[in-house]
Amino acid sequence: MTLAELDAQQAQSLSEVAAAADAAALEQVRIRYLGRNGLLPAIVKQMKDVPAAERPEFGKGTNAWRAALEAALADRLASVGTVKKEESAFDCTLPGRWSAPGAKHPVSRVIEESAAIFARLGFTVADGPDIENRFNNFTALNTPAHHPSMDASDTFWLTDDLLLRTQTSPVQIRMMTQYRPPVRIITPGRTYRRDTTDATHSANFHQIEGLYVDTKPVSLADLKSTLAYFAKEMMGSKAGVRFRPHFFPFTEPSVEVDFSCHVCAGKGCRVCKNSGWIEIAGAGMVDPRVFNFVGYDPEQVFGYAFGFGVERIAMIKYGIPDIRWLYENDTRFLSQLA
Ligand code: DAH
Fold this sequence. Notes:
Order of helices and strands: HHHHHEEHEHEEHEEEHEHH
CATH class of the largest domain: Alpha Beta
Distance between the termini: 74 Å
Number of strands: 9
Helix content: 25-40%
Strand order of the largest sheet: 1-4-5-9-8-7-6
Bound molecules: 3,4-dihydroxyphenylalanine
Strand content: 15-25%
CATH topology of the largest domain: BirA Bifunctional Protein, domain 2
CATH architecture of the largest domain: 2-Layer Sandwich
Radius of gyration: 39 Å
Number of helices: 11
């Protein structure tokens, strides 16, 4: 190859750089001339065939070519990098991709919040199975053998002995048969009843059970102050509690627990149906007969228990009018609560 031919090749390569429309085309040019099997390394390799007199000039020429080509490639790359808007496939006026933010389900939220509130009072979270036996769900909870709640029309029986638990109360029995007092637990979980679904009923819902037993006296006042604290933490500082006498087989005395309406603070509004109070939980002092069933000495052990519906709190807290909304997984509803 002569010096003139070298100059011609250089000019050719530079015009190819100038003509390259984008980064990919530039890369092709770079590979063709500077790549491992490119033209320039091939020429350098043939330098020994160049007459000795011309060799220094030839060497300088190839070096200059390499430098010029590299500079031109870098220059051109910088300018094709900033493509003019109308030439670009990117349309910055298109709406962005919508990435739906996840939202925690209201039932999970109430469960997690309750666990955090009761943890501050020293309660830990206990768990029990959805499939229970007759003893834990009814007998040890002092439910009379022919109580209507045991009826096949109310309870999902799986066998003569096994059933889908109708309440989280059997976890009380599981805890007390396994541990000596003091026991201070809450237990959130699913419960099942043969209820026809409507705006306020579901055959599968959630409860949170609470149990505190100790060998030192525990009173109804302890129960009330615990639930009063829970009411304020869960529903806001306006919420208070009141007890109404009631009956549950496993507590004596038993009460129904109302929260004062967190919206009107007891004055009466739509949320509390003008009564100022909202029924929230069942509770009471653990019946001595339950202590007998689990092998505790009723003379030595004292305790209270309570249970409330998670969906009910979620509906009141978030103003959800229909329990079925909680199970339909309609993200238009769920994401509003985010
Ligand atoms: N298990 C009851 C129910 O499902 C609720 C309940 C009432 C739980 C009183 C308790 C309690 O622990 O003491 O209706």
